């Protein structure tokens, strides 16, 4: 187990998962988060069934050797020491049943070989199986810890407020066997406005991680350097073409919040965002002309036309990946109707950060109800609204590149300690 300790230490040194999270991963992987009495229940139930069957069948039927099922069942859920304890009780029960059936002579082969030797041998092998199971669970927990650390390093959780925006994010990876999902997002306050990206890399695993790292790294550089949002996308396209594995592509949606009251969007084959007004009205912001994902730009010359949409205080922008809209109903198999459900769930979420966070929680809970509690793909939900206090400060700050609103001339800047206006 020394190698496992070293792996866990390396993850912790890299700023990965907290020790408690690593312990929880191991407990869940090996069922050790379940109380002992529940894990021991199957083996104890088998013990009781064999004992009852032998007792009720009378002394002329010798069913005590069936007690060998107890070690086998115990090896599935118990630790080796716990298994030995349960098997010791089963061994005493075996002796009692043998005495009841008057089969206690060591020279009797039914007793010596059919019961005693078989039970002890199977107990030893079952303890070995339990130890092997625990080591495999520890290896799985180590892989899961490393995967989670890599995911956290790649996807830096944005602050609840970035520039003039309030944000609430739910990202859930449905990765199995320690695989890492390919959903990505980032929000940056730059000299050219607050810019964001939401994307989904084709596939999973290390290839998807490499492509996501290329996309996010290029975005975090280009978003500060390029004045046009289309130029940001072009820089990322070039980086993906140079550094991403062959055949990998990424659907993406770019957003730029520069001027108060509007947002500029660029679609690269991604799920269109949904705009929810304060009254709950829903508008799906489809691109006028669909464009190819990042990494396939060589197939189509030019670049997509930006979509400029009014986006005022009170509006909420709902961004997601296909893991949300393609989540199937647990009985009918229908896709999750996000556009139909999201209006009432998000309405009025712009009033505060707490309301926005509560709203994204409601949408995610509704998604889980639709799927029956499980997701088969990574799912990213992001809610974005304007912080009107931040908007006012931005317009009134001298020396900013952004244009001041003449209607606010002469108005005093909002106090930095004032709570957001509901």
From TrEMBL:
Biased composition (Low complexity): 409-422
Transmembrane segments: 111-130
InterPro entries per UniProt: Bact_Sigma-Reg, PPM-type-like_dom_sf, PPM-type_phosphatase-like_dom
An example molecular function term from Gene Ontology annotations: protein serine/threonine phosphatase activity
The PPM-type phosphatase domain, residue ranges: 165-386
Gene3D superfamilies linked: PPM-type phosphatase domain (3.60.40.10)
Signal peptide region: none
Enzyme class: hydrolase
Keywords attached to this entry: Hydrolase, Membrane, Transmembrane, Transmembrane helix
Transmembrane helix recorded as keyword: yes
Record EC number: 3.1.3.16
Protein name, as recorded: PP2C family protein-serine/threonine phosphatase
């Amino acid at each position: 187990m020394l190698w496992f300790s070293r792996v866990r230490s390396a993850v912790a040194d890299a700023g990965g998962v907290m020790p408690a999270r690593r312990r929880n991963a191991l407990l869940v992987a090996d069922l050790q988060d379940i109380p002992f009495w529940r894990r021991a229940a199957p083996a104890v139930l088998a013990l009781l069934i064999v004992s009852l069957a032998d007792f009720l069948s009378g002394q002329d039927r010798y069913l005590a050797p069936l007690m060998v099922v107890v070690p086998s069942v115990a090896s599935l859920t118990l630790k080796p020491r716990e298994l030995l304890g349960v098997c010791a009780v089963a061994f005493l029960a075996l002796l009692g049943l043998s005495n009841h059936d008057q089969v206690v002579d060591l020279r009797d082969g039914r007793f010596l070989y059919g019961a005693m030797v078989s039970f002890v041998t199977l107990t030893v092998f079952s303890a070995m199986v339990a130890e092997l199971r625990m080591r495999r669970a520890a290896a799985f927990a180590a892989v899961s810890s490393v995967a989670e650390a890599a995911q956290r390093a790649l996807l830096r959780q944005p602050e609840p407020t970035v520039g003039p925006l309030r944000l609430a994010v739910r990202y859930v990876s449905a990765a199995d066997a320690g695989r890492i999902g390919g959903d990505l997002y980032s929000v940056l306050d730059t000299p050219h406005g607050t810019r964001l990206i939401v994307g989904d890399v084709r596939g999973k695993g290390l290839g998807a991680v490499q492509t996501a790292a290329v996309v996010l790294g290029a975005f975090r550089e280009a978003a500060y350097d390029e004045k046009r949002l289309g130029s940001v996308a072009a820089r990322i396209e070039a980086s993906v073409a140079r550094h991403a594995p062959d055949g990998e592509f990424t659907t993406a949606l770019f957003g730029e919040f520069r001027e108060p009251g509007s947002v500029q969007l660029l679609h690269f084959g991604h799920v269109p965002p949904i705009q929810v007004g304060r009254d709950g009205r829903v508008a799906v912001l489809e691109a006028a002309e669909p464009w190819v994902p990042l990494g396939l730009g060589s197939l189509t010359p030019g670049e997509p036309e930006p979509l400029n949409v009014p986006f005022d205080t009170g509006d909420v922008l709902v961004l997601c990946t296909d893991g949300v809209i393609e989540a199937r109903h647990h009985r009918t198999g229908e896709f999750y109707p996000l556009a139909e459900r999201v209006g009432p769930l998000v309405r009025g979420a712009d009033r505060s950060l707490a309301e926005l966070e509560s709203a994204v929680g409601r949408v995610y809970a509704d998604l889980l109800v639709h799927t029956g509690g499980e997701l088969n793909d990574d799912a990213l939900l992001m809610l974005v609204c304007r912080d009107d206090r931040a908007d006012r400060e931005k317009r009134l700050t001298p020396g900013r590149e952004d244009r001041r609103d003449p209607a606010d001339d002469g108005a005093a800047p909002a106090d930095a300690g004032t709570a957001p206006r509901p």
